[in-house]
Each structure stands twice: as structure tokens, then as C-alpha cells.
Design goal:
The protein is mainly alpha-helical. The chain has helices at about 5-10, 20-30, 35-40, 50-55, 85-100, 105-115, 130-145, 150-160, 165-175, and strands at about 60-65, 70-80. A hairpin with a 2-residue loop joins strand 1 and strand 2 (about 70-80). The two termini are about 30 Å apart.
């Protein structure tokens, strides 16, 4: 899998921002080289709860977590998919159902929405927004026009999509 292939595939799903989903997946999977991607096509670290594990495939994987600013490892169950398209179909539904504040029209609003899910934030990593912001700027040249992310940030600020701390991180990442 490469950035452009994933991005083109993600564009086919209505409830996600294709660029933001590509950034998130590239980050979560180490550019689609992680054990979880290679063995389960899980592009965003989606965990498998007990209901999923009853009748669907999953993997148990040791993964990094963060609590109170400290990193540690633990074993967790993760959803397993038959293909990248199957992952994106499930991810699309998960975003729609559990992260309704993710804006499809703006990647910064999408990232901010990952912090306002029905059961809390997407990731336990206290630096998740920062990592996504930095990854977005590394992928901008490959997928978007120059300056797109800065214009999108101005739009997100104007629409009040971001918290002040998120604005600060996005501005810092843009330097």
C-alpha cells in the first residue's frame, strides 16, 4: 500500500475526509508497514470489543498506550479485515456513528472530531493530534496543492472547529 493508492480508495467513502483518513492511517501503520496492517488490514488501530469478537476475525497485539503522559505497552484485541476496502468501509461507519464531530470538509476539523467521540478520544496517546498534524504536513506535497493545509487551518479557525491548544499545535507543525 502507498499513500496515493490509500487516498484514492478513501475518496470513495462518504463520511470520512480522505486526506485526514490517509494521514491517520499512515501514522497508525507506519506507512502501511505495521504488523496490524500487514496481518489484518487494520489501518487505524480499531479495537475489537467483545461483540465484534463473537463472530468476526480479530488479532491480539501488543500495542503502545499512553496514560497521564506516560507510555506503556499492553495487549489488546484489534479488528481484522479481509482487504483495505473492507477496513475503510468499517472505518467509514465507525466515524459516522462514533465520531460525529469529524468534519468531512476540513482535515483539521476531522482531527479535532477524533477527540469528541461518543466514548471519548480516538487514541490514548496524549500527543496524537500533534503527530497527525506533523504527518499531514509531510503528506501535503504528495496529495494536495501547496498551501492547502494552511488555508484549511484558517478555515477551521474561522469555523471554530479547533480548541486553542489544537490551533497552537497546527501552527507549530506548519513551520
Amino acid at each position: 500500500m502507498d499513500v496515493l493508492t490509500f487516498y484514492k480508495l478513501a475518496k470513495g467513502f462518504k463520511h470520512i475526509n480522505a486526506f485526514a483518513a490517509t494521514v491517520q492511517s499512515a501514522h497508525e501503520t507506519g506507512n502501511w508497514t505495521s504488523y496490524l496492517w500487514l496481518n489484518a488490514y487494520n489501518g487505524a488501530g480499531i479495537k475489537a470489543d467483545a461483540k465484534w469478537r463473537k463472530d468476526k476475525d480479530y488479532l491480539e497485539v501488543r500495542s503502545p498506550e499512553s496514560k497521564d503522559g506516560t507510555y506503556y505497552y499492553k495487549y489488546s484485541y484489534f479488528r481484522k479485515y479481509s482487504s483495505p476496502a473492507a477496513f475503510l468501509a468499517d472505518y467509514n461507519l465507525k466515524i459516522k456513528a462514533d465520531y460525529p464531530h469529524c468534519t468531512v470538509d476540513n482535515l483539521w476539523g476531522y482531527f479535532a472530531g477524533l477527540y469528541r467521540g461518543r466514548w471519548g478520544a480516538w487514541a490514548t496517546d496524549h500527543r496524537y493530534f500533534e503527530k497527525l498534524a506533523r504527518k499531514a504536513f509531510t503528506l501535503e506535497d504528495e496529495l494536495l496543492s501547496a498551501g492547502h493545509l494552511k488555508r484549511a487551518l484558517a478555515y477551521a479557525i474561522d469555523k471554530n472547529y479547533l480548541e486553542p491548544w489544537q490551533i497552537e499545535i497546527a501552527r507549530e507543525a506548519s513551520k
